[in-house]
Design goal:
This protein is mostly beta strands and 167 residues long. It has one helix at residues 55-59, and strands at residues 12-13, 18-19, 24-25, 30-31, 35-37, 42-43, 48-51, 68-70, 75-76, 81-83, 87-88, 93-94, 99-100, 104-106, 111-112, 117-118, 122-124, 129-130, 135-136, 144-146, 151-152. Helices cover 3% and strands 30% of the residues. The chain has a seven-stranded parallel sheet with strand order 1-4-7-10-13-16-19, with no helix packed on it.
Length: 167
């Protein structure tokens, strides 16, 4: 099997996409419109990067995908879905089959483990780790915060109602 560095021939790249130096996009991955990917980032196969949010169904022709920004030296493993409208710092890393919904603001040096489900509208500081299968609930109050230098693990549900030292 041949290793691909750069854009795999089966990857689909949308409009207004900015790819940094030495970016790899794996087989069958879709990078939707309005995505910025930093230098030396690796995106594995079968990922959806910049997945449109629910407004695409209600706004139809007027819909513009919100910008998604992924920092440099990031690693996004196979099967990961990252929705549009979020920001990820440098050295961001996911396990396999992670879902991260819109309006997630995630700092530098953050790891989100395999099968984790971050339901968006959240802030995660720098140097944080979520081990495999973490969940961030969107049900009331639908907000999540994790300060810097924190680690949480499965099964975990965090909302902004919690004091910052809980995570």
């Amino acid at each position: 099997m041949k290793n691909y560095f750069g854009i795999h021939p089966t990857a689909l790249i949308g409009e207004n996409v900015s790819l940094g130096r030495n970016v790899t996009v794996g087989a069958r991955t879709i990078v939707y419109d309005n995505v910025v990917i930093g230098d030396d980032t690796f995106i594995g196969p079968d990922c959806l990067i910049g997945e449109p949010n629910v407004a695409i169904h209600t706004e139809r022709d007027a819909y513009v995908n919100p910008e998604l920004s992924i920092g440099s030296n990031s690693l996004i493993r196979s099967g990961t879905i990252v929705y549009a409208g979020s920001t990820f710092g440098d050295h961001f890393e996911t396990g396999h089959r992670v879902t991260i919904r819109e309006q997630a603001n995630i700092g530098h040096h953050v790891r989100i483990g395999t099968l984790s489900d971050i339901q968006g509208h959240c802030d995660i500081g720098t140097t944080c780790a979520c081990t495999a299968t973490c969940t961030s609930a969107t049900r009331a109050p639908s907000r999540t915060t994790c300060g810097s230098s924190r680690m949480w693990s499965s099964p975990t549900i965090r909302t902004r109602r919690r004091a910052p030292w809980w995570v």
